[in-house]
Amino acid sequence: MNNDKQALLLALGAVGLWSTVATAFKVGLAHMSPLPLLWIASCVSWAVIGLMVAQQGLLQHALTRGWHNAVWAGLMNPVAYYLILFGAYDRLPGQEAMALNYTWALVMAFLAVPILGQRLTLVDILAGLIAYAGVWVIATRGAVLDVDFADPLGVALALVSTLVWALYWLINTRDRRLPLVAQWQNFTVAVPLLSLLLLAGPGISWMGWRGLGAAVYIGLFEMGIAFVLWQLALRRVSRTAKVSNLIFLSPPVSLLLLHWVVDEPIQLSTLLGLALILAGLALQQKQKIR
Question: Per mean pLDDT, which of 98-107, 142-151, 254-263 is the most reliable?
């Protein structure tokens, strides 16, 4: 099997796992608040990625290098990003939070102008206008002439999460740590901090097997294995565009899983808004391929 076929299978695995996490978020948040959910998921991810680091003989490297980057990176991801994102999922239907979160790639394109000195093209602006028209449709739940959002805080949290995620990846372009080592170090910083926040705040109590299973699943797959699969795919593929478009498969699958597992009725406003968001992302992606 050549490298591109291997990369395709790895990328499909990552996208398949990411398609399930919106459902896992909603299941977990039905049994606990965002902070305990993130703490359990982070502990699981720290352990799993730590085993991978050790298995690849990188533990000594991870323990002795790169910690000056791990502090800011761990505070951004997973601490700030996932607390904000889980807050959005806690307030909004999963389909709305998921769709709004997909605008992070457009946010990154706009922030790359002041941070990396990149040029903003007319296609970027048009893609942004199309995608954020979709955001408006979702935020107003189809009442596009009405500025009275159904849950303004939930919408704000979902959009702020895209800002944090985009900033993380832009600043990450200057991070020279190995991806797997960086991920483990980030969680090594995050777990003690989340533990202190948990002890000082809500504490932790038994959330039932279903809630615990969702938290473990998120840590194992969303924060762990899916990340590794995607990184391996990007390293093997001859051209990033061959796998990057696969991410567009995730939202429709996520919607179906939310409907089947969480019993969320699929709203027409979500479908229309998501179509606009994906159209904007596709336009931006097409520009990158050229």
Answer: 254-263
Q: What confidence score (pLDDT) does residue 148 get?
A: 65
Q: How many CB atoms lie within 10 A of CB 11?
A: 24
Mean pLDDT of all residues belonging to the chain: 86
At 159-173, the pLDDT tens digits run 999 999 989 888 887
Q: Are 35 and 195 in contact (CB under 8 A)?
A: no
Residue 175: exposure state from Cβ atoms within 10 A (0-12, 13-18, ≥19): middle
| CA separation for the pair 51, 242 (Å, rounded) | 30
Tokens at residue 35, please?
């902070």
Q: For the whole prediction, is pTM greater than 0.85?
A: yes
Tokens of 248: 């567009």
Cα 40 to Cα 29: distance, rounded to the nearest angstrom? 12
Residues 6+ apart with CB under 8 A from 2: none
- Domain extent, residue 156, equals 3-289
Q: How far is CA 234 from CA 4, 182, 230, in A?
A: 10, 16, 6
Number of domains observed in the structure of the chain: 1
